[in-house]
## 1
Amino acid sequence: MSVEDHVFKALAAGADLVALARPIIYGLALGGAQGVTDVVNHLNHELKITMQLAGTKTIADIQHTQLFK
């Protein structure tokens, strides 16, 4: 299970905010500010793919019923 899958599940369960520390810290440690930017861009891209696979176009479209599909 990937980070973006956990983000999607948290949003579907009703979360208004999802905090991510480990990937951001790894990006910072390995690449400084650019590493953090790269990690955020990668997570954003992967979350968009997860959303497309679930049939959602926006974060607001994510519903708890998608946890059981």
Note: Residues 3-57 form one domain.
## 2
Amino acid sequence: MEAAATLAHARRRMIATTGIVLAVVIFFAIVANQALVASMLIAVFGTARDPVFPTPLLDLTPQHIAIVIVSSALTIAVGLPLGIWVTRESGRDFRDVVSAGVDFGQVFPPIAVLAVMFSAWGLGPAPAILALFLYGLFPVVSGTVAGLEAVPPEVIDAARGMGMGNWRILFVVELPLAMGVMLAGIRTSVIVNVGTATVAAATGAGGLGLPIFTGISTENIGYVVEGAVTVSVLALLFDGAIAVLAMWLAPESSLD
């Protein structure tokens, strides 16, 4: 019975992995075909006003992805250790301070951070990356804390009774059991960053926010739709990719 369940899980995992790979290939095949993108936009908006943004999506999409990956990597690199630390004996006294800090980063508008950083660093991706980093910390930290606190105390006691030290318990017992909830927090953070990364266009960093901002300023709805639809599909792809990653990394007991 258990072997059958394991086999079924492995089959679902392979199907999901194949599906997301195919979806990514199809997405980039469409993005790379500027003529196809133009024909779809013209079919909807006509030719009275050119609805196709001059810069190809194939140039804008990698810029957008790079901003999301860098900002999300920074968020994960800081958020995971921070979440782990406040659940340890040495960091529990600082939990309220850390929670207040990441809460502030979540409620403080990214565009406001962008304005402050722009005055200090000028044009480029750095202000946008910092804004997204601060904005994405809350789900990562809260997901890490929630996942670790959900580990049953009796499991930790059993591991300690087997002679495991604190660090070994963390990496061998707690983190694997908390992985599903932690990845859910990372998933939320990354998806939010995909959408919010459109603000990077305001500092000249490019990305898919460029056609959106240009379309709004020139009242060209075609530009707005071109950028917004691409961002939406990209968010779905990131969401699916992280969901598949969770199927590979999280224990089977935490998935179904």
Note: Residues 211 and 217 are 10 Å apart (CA to CA).
